[in-house]
Amino acid sequence: MNQTGKVLPRWVLLSRRHLVDAYQVGPAKYMEVVNAFKPDLWVSLPDEVPSWVAEKRNRLSVDRTLQWLDQCLSLQPAEYGNRCLGVVVGSTSLDERIRSAEQTATRNVAGFSLGGFGLGEDAAQRAVQMEAVLTKLPKEKVRHVSGIGLPEEILQAVGAGIDVFDSIYPFMLTKGGYAMTFPLNMENSQRSFDSEPTGEELARSGGDSAKINLRSVAYRLDNAPLVIGCKCYTCRKHTRAYINHLINTHEMLAQTLLEIHNTYHYLEFFKAIRHSIKLDKFHDFRNWFTSTRQKSGTPSPSKSRQ
Ligand SMILES: [Zn+2]
Fold it and tell me: What are the tens digits of pLDDT across the range 60-85?
């Protein structure tokens, strides 16, 4: 909250444990930064609120996001053309989500960004809201979403009609010492192990059917790559045992090698989705992926940002 009692988004600088400084950011400051970067696409400044706020605050969030969108649009230099994705908010209120979508669709934007997801809503609520919003947006314009990242969530969003994602999911897994191992190919599923461990065995080492925990002592002498057959640099050159050693001796290289694999694996997942859409087999791919994961115990969809 600033001196006039107005709530503004904040960019916060943190040291390892403490708040160093916080900058309040309004449309003018925000557009100064956007215009300095000259991006191909940019997202208007939203006033996102978590799912548990009162109805009044949620209505204010929708009004303010629309007002800021207009201000942002008026501050984009004409020579760059229209590259703005207007943010649709509304939290868990279907009426507010629809109002936000309908109003944003009347603005001269290049596409839409669905904001306010991954802020406490459950997966069932998210699916209903996403579908309701997308029916109100013109089909020919790009639709972007941030705040979700689990593979099942991505498939749900693609099924609903989302085109573009940004996610911190690979980074969060890397930070925790995990490597993605979920399957990517319907026809020729890659193996993560010579003899597949049970869900219980994976859980004991801190992993599940989607990822393995490289901190675990289970990988101390494991000379296999993170995923057998994976073509990333890490899997071609290094073993689980080596990465386990790097993590346990606090070597920074562990995070670098894990990030290389996780980013590669995640991008391969998106490649597989695009391929299935091209072949008109997206629904088969989604059903196969979901059923494979359910068989081996799928983790619950997240309520927080990924
Ligand atoms: Zn790899």
Answer: 999 999 999 999 999 998 887 889 99
